[in-house]
Design a protein that fits this description.
8 strands; globular
Length: about 130
C-alpha cells in the first residue's frame, strides 16, 4: 500500500431484530435478506419496515408469485433460473413495493418489475 493509498471503506450496517441491513456504498442502496427473500431500497433514507409489514410483503409476494410467473411466461421462457428482489424504495411514500424478476436462463438482460399495492399487482414494467 502506497503512502497516499486509501483503504476501501466497509459498508455501514445495522442489525435490528436479527436482520443485518447494509448500505452498499458502491450501489448506493440498502440491502438485506429476511426469511429467504432479498430486499433492497434505492434511497438515502430508509425506514425499516416492522416485522408485521415484512411478513405482509412476503405473504403478498408468495400469493402473487403464480400470477407473476404466468405473466413472465407470456414474454419469456420461464425456467428454473428466475430470481426476484423485493424493492422497498416506494414502500412508505407510495404504499407500494416492487418485485423485480430477472436472471432466467433464456432471458438475456431482460427484467420485469411488478408494482404491488394492497396485495395486488398494479403495474408491470419490462426493461433491460
Amino acid at each position: 500500500m502506497g503512502l497516499f493509498s486509501k483503504r476501501s471503506k466497509a459498508n455501514p450496517a445495522v442489525e435490528i431484530d436479527g436482520i443485518k441491513i447494509e448500505y452498499d456504498l458502491a450501489n448506493e442502496d440498502w440491502q438485506f435478506s429476511h426469511k429467504g427473500a432479498d430486499f433492497v431500497a434505492y434511497s438515502a433514507t430508509f425506514i425499516i419496515p416492522s416485522e408485521a409489514l415484512l411478513s405482509s410483503i412476503l405473504a403478498a409476494t408468495e400469493n402473487l408469485q403464480p400470477e407473476m410467473i404466468q405473466r413472465l411466461s407470456k414474454e419469456v421462457k420461464a425456467d428454473d433460473g428466475e430470481t426476484f428482489l423485493i424493492n422497498l424504495t416506494d414502500l412508505h411514500a407510495q404504499d407500494s413495493f416492487e418485485v423485480s424478476w430477472s436472471s432466467g436462463k433464456s432471458w438475456g438482460d431482460v427484467g420485469v418489475d411488478f408494482t404491488i399495492r394492497n396485495h395486488a399487482i398494479t403495474d408491470e414494467s419490462w426493461g433491460d
